[in-house]
Sequence to fold (939 residues):
Amino acid sequence: MSIFQYVVLKINGEDRPVMIRSADTLLEVLRNELGLTGSKPGCLNGDCGACTVIVDGKPMKSCLMLGVEGTGKEITTIEGLQGTAIQQAFVEYFAFQCGYCTPGYIMNCQSLIENEPKATDEKISEWLKSNICRCTGYEEIETAIKSVLRESNSKDRPISRESEMD
Amino acid sequence: MTNIGKSVIRKEALDKVTGRAKYTADFPSGEMLHGKSVISHYGHGTIKSIDVMEAKKEPGVRAIITGKQYPLTGEEIRDRPPIAFEKIRFHGEVVALVVADTPAIAKRAASLINVVVDPLPVVNSPSEGVSKDAPLVHDNVAEYEREEGVHPVPKTNIANHTKIRKGDMASGWAKSEIVIEENFSFPPSDHIPMETRSATAEIRPDGKVLITTSSQAPFMVKELLSQYFDLEVGKIIVKTPLVGGGYGGKASVQQEILAYLGSLAVEGRTVRMINEREEDMITSPCHMGLDAKVKLGCTADGYLQATELTYLVDSGAYSDKAIHLSRACAVDCTGPYFIENIWCDSYAVYTNHPYPAPYRGFSHAEVHFVFERAMDILARKLNMDPLELRYKNAIKPGHTTPTQVKLNRSTVGDVPMCIEKVKQLSRWEEGQLIELNERTVRAKGLACVWKNSTIPPESSSGAIITFNEDGTMNLMSGVVEIGTATKTVLAQILAERFRMSVNDIYVKMTVDTQSTPEHWKTVASRGTLMGGRAVLAAAEDAIRQIKEVASCVMKVRTDDLEIGNRRVFLREDPKEGLDFRDVVYGYTFPEGNAIGGQIIGRGNYILRNITYLDPETGAGNPGPEWAVGAQVVEVEFDRRDYTYKIIKAISVLDVGRVLNYKGALGQVTGAMSMGLGFGGRESFVIDDKARVLNPQLRTYRPVHFGEHPEYIVEFIETPHIDSPFGARGVGEQGLLGMPAALGNSLSLAAGVELHHLPLLPESIWRKKEGLNT
Ligand code: FES
Ligand code: FES
Fold:
């Protein structure tokens, strides 16, 4: 029997057929089989969050999940996220430098926004401490996520954002 | 000024938030083999045998190589076999390399290789390394090939000795009414860039060597590979896309060599190496440890008179950048103070530890921890406010540095002003120590910082600008985008000179040593100075050409012309002029004949007036300028269980000129975060056999979200005249005083002098209780 199996993964709304080893992590499948290199390896051990994707609405470290476990689930990667408020906020508030932790961070933030729109500061910390950013001092990421949460909580009174050049 | 100082969004921002930004390991693999290292699990030992039989049998294994035939490598002393040969000298050292069809096969085969080692006694700290009966990590360091200006001590573990001899020590001590003597130390740690290192190599039939690497020094990779393996330098082409954090760690050349050797073993086919986190921490170069001794004296009214310093840099098993790091310890061996009499011995000492790369701040945060802790201890003995002691002794224009450079207003920032400002921002006057309740106290610690770079005198940087038909520009510079947004800042500088919108400048993000002009290394916070000056030179070159074409067309002198908003026009009557679009691709006269062609501007810059240090006294000019600052850390400390929370971290930095406000702010707070990690929690835990016990992010824990303090940052602007718009270095300065300021605040809070990093609650408790540390 071949060590490869044929599976169909639903990624970013598309059915993606792949031949994978049962030992391949979802991260390896995304990067090596599907060319979705937005999800980053940082530790392959669940410690850094650089590989975070959204699986059935919840953030998941794709290095901790097998590719074959992904069948029948809705998987969203950074490539599936376009023009969201959190991406915009990351740009405006300078919430990244080298950008390597950024896709994972954004996926975790996006999931937080969807799951906990009224998140308290403690809740935000609890969610976001599963990702490491080595470049920033986290303050900019905090500003970015809070601006989006605040804005979605007060739709009629949007906060004013600074322009590109201030 | 329309561009300078503005928080211009980095050019690659959209790519980075959409997952489209490409790093070295993101490029499609295609026809590619995969390399995997077998690493040593001992700190020191003789290799008895390496059994590769089982591994060879694995289908898909293409080559297995061991260290025998390769030349020695190393930047300043050639002491390092790229793959260990006969001896292993640290835990994590590469002993063999497997090249296979897939990463999984390579990994499995690597696990089947059996290395038998006869353990040897280890050197487990630089202090041990210089002790009388220390085992020798290298039999005779003096026999290795080395660069000029490196001073090893034969048949010892000392790879380099740098001396500072300034003033007259006897008279300095005679004038010192108060003297302290203290020892400080910390073990090696790591940079932890989120992107682990990766490199691919391919050797073409015509001898071309193609390397792609996550490096801060692609041009150095080219130069060193050519030297090590006797290759024609023009045949080596090194590419570096975006880099996922470097902090100095990716300025060393190590993994590229393995990828090259891997490719060599398989007839030049492409071989990719990607570090796992564990390898990235211990196999590839780390952050240095240090043992230090300081003696410091002052008059009864607090004027510093003399200091004697010994720095033992943990050079690990190989000297690589440790030579240079130990030299930098000597160059700025004190804090930013004027001291007439200075004696410093700085040594790079071999141990059986992983060996160091540069680390953000290049020895300065390390030296500052030692010296700024000593300043607080001295202040306590003097019964003087530590802020006042620093203010009194702050170095100023007219003073001389440890390497006897006489400072002027351009070459050093304003230390007193930084101290005044930080005093205000930290509310120093309310008291350094405030009791909140019977368990908890709040304490503030201060550190002053300075930094010059010590890069080689001949380091240069180049820039090329080309025009598009519509009058917009493309900018090419050898500065690597490692997260500092330097490429964006260079575009701002160019836009400013051309008086046009930065949006009309396109920046080439990747570096390719064949087509990008050289920038020595993206290190030392010198990208803006050197890259910026090169860009300005390229701008002048292009402007001259544009004016020449325009002067011909308009029948005016070139010096009557001005440029701005993508036009060249008459200074006296700006309406009279030509659009760039009509000039930058050649001008066509109504009759059809044309002049000019695509405008291509080129410029370069080489640091001026840098000299080697005198081997006996250390006298010499190490670099272009000293950026300075003052920093405060405020903690809330629990006197019962010794835990603490960092409440505030404050930096006042003289950056010369802010070029991109939010960008600079992010550089500073990010560096502060890293410094607090280094001071408070990060270190390798090394056992008595010199094995690193925590090479993973679960047990080696950088600062996480929610653990960050409130950051307060203020900039002072004392221009550095040579630099574009007066800017000084800003990428490293935020880190420099953090470990010291944290140490000072915790020493005060706990009521005991702390001498070792990292400052874990347990180590504070041990010190307080007088237990073994
Ligand atoms: S790579 Fe998955 S958590 Fe680090
Ligand atoms: S932006 Fe570099 S690690 Fe977060």
About this structure: Chain A touches chain B through 59 residues (CB under 8 Å). Residues A 96-102, 133-136; B 194, 245, 483 surround FE2/S2 (inorganic) cluster (ligand 2) (CB under 6 Å). Residues 85-155 of chain A form a domain with the DNA polymerase; domain 1 fold (CATH 1.10.150.120).
